[in-house]
């Protein structure tokens, strides 16, 4: 599988990155992805550029990431090393401090210790089917657009049991208005099939999903 290579001393982390807790990844082309991280707020202090996944920023001499700039592609950051804990979608732009990427998240965490590109992001061609129960059972709804409130558009309850990603990458949120826990779901992970809410991420504690949107490239 083609992989990006991080610049600088984190090149040795590319092998552990391949061991992410994901199943059946599809081959992806090289980049373009580029992110610059800083160990102080407002783009101060130590800085480092990456063009691929970094499973542990401490192995690059950082104790934490406190600001960052996404120059190419979409990324997902994680609260803990090894791509674990809360997820934060990082689309192109500047993030001068931690609350810029956690946004209106109800669970503010001032830690970002690992990150990786979202290789399957395709905003123009994205499609997902959500199911009422796990294992793709019950009522289903095919989605190809952003919805700040699934319930306002007719979804019967505030929970989703399972999902199939036909193409692209999506961010699902616990609450309406893109708030609460973030779950980044991708076509090239799990073969696009998320049979149970526990597969959404290591931080998943509930099947509650009330808003959803496509990942911006």
TrEMBL record:
PROSITE patterns named in the record: CRYSTALLIN_BETA_GAMMA
Keywords for this protein: Eye lens protein, Repeat
Stated family: Belongs to the beta/gamma-crystallin family.
Name of the molecule in the record: Beta/gamma crystallin 'Greek key' domain-containing protein
Keyword Lyase appears in the UniProt entry: no
All residue ranges annotated as the Beta/gamma crystallin 'Greek key' domain in the record: 33-72, 73-119, 126-167, 168-216
InterPro entries named in the record: Beta/Gamma-Crystallin, Beta/gamma_crystallin, G_crystallin-like
Protein source organism: Chloebia gouldiae
Task of the protein: Crystallins are the dominant structural components of the vertebrate eye lens.
SMART domains associated with the record: XTALbg
């Amino acid at each position: 599988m083609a992989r990006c290579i991080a610049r600088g001393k984190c090149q040795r982390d590319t092998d552990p990155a391949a061991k992410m807790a994901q199943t059946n990844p599809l081959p992806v082309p090289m980049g373009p992805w580029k992110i610059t991280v800083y160990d102080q707020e407002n783009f101060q202090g130590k800085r480092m550029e990456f063009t691929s996944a970094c499973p542990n920023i401490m192995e690059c001499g950082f104790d934490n990431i406190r600001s960052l700039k996404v120059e190419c592609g979409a990324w997902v950051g994680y609260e803990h090393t090894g791509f674990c804990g809360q997820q934060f979608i990082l689309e192109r732009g500047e993030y001068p401090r931690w609350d810029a990427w956690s946004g209106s998240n109800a669970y503010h965490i001032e830690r970002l210790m690992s990150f990786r590109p979202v290789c399957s992001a395709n905003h123009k061609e994205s499609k997902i089917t959500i199911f009422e129960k796990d294992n793709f059972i019950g009522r289903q709804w095919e989605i190809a657009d952003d919805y700040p409130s699934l319930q306002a558009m007719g979804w019967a309850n505030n929970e989703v049991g399972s999902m199939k990603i036909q193409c692209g990458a999506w961010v699902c949120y616990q609450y309406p208005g893109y708030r609460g826990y973030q779950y980044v779901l991708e076509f090239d992970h799990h073969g696009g099939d998320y049979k149970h809410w526990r597969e959404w991420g290591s931080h998943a504690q509930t099947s509650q999903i009330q808003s959803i949107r496509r990942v911006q490239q």
